[in-house]
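Model it.
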Amino acid sequence: MDSPGSTLAIDPSALREAARRIGIAVVGDSTIDRYTIGSATRLSPEGPVPAVTVTKELFRPGASYNAVENLANLGIGVEYLTVVGDDPEGRHMAEELGRRGIPAGGVVVERGRRTTSVHRVLSDGHLLLWMERSSPRDISRRTESELLERLRASADGLGAIVVSDHARGVVTRGLMRGIVEEARRRGIPVFVNGRGANLPRYAGADLVRLSRAEASAATGIAPINDTSHRNMCMKAASLAGSGGVLVTWLEEGAWLLRGGSFSQIPPPSSGIRPSNLVGIGDAITALLAFLSSAGLGLEAAARGALMGASLAASEGRRSLESLDRLIAALSGPGGAPARAQA
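Modeled.
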């Protein structure tokens, strides 16, 4: 039998209308991910390492793009703002976005910067090797200004802004300050998929999502019971200067602190077993931004986001394949639906 957190009464027609009506901006770090896939049946004669016979190679955008993909798959209009270098990897990023139907007009090219690239080698589904190239520095103030100008130019009609921080230099204090100022001026909520070490950068955000490990490391509080989880959330919100925090841990659900109110969100259905956690933080944050903008209360939106992201991960994906799939995951058996506000 499903757990109490496995279903959520929603109005499908209201969600479909919201997906057509609402635009969401995603701002953050991006990577170009390369996957070398094959099978290792022997050891290399040159050293005690697996010798992989390659069967295929794949390229795809990563990091903040995971939030973009989740929203685009639901049919939501997405404004994607990120930074790449003036290098082959940066050009490859633009090409890959084009293949996926995502406009590259918000991709800022910073001269002298190295586009973050991640190369994974997998054998029979198991990760053998991870290699990464990236710039060790924050983006320049000029690049910050260019990103903010592009955000302002596309802000009309936005229902939310998602900031995806993967600690690779794009989400700077200056950029975050500018995003919050523009959002406040227009009455747009800001949701952050954050890093514990960068909490002070998120001042003014409406909600910051953290993994439980990140929240514990940032606050120095070990999450062992309800009291410690509450204290961890309160301290994280204080460090961030944000309106609230959502701390997620799939095995036990999530903990939401908002406006002094604290609640635990139950884990998804016992039948959901996430097998691929890559990008799940971005998936949760993106779905939370959409469901909240569609009129669900924050706790209901957080429940729905956790369920949808966990289901995608259980199917070996980084995102749900369609809005219909999300609606099917959230719809409760029987009962009157909770109508989202238009």
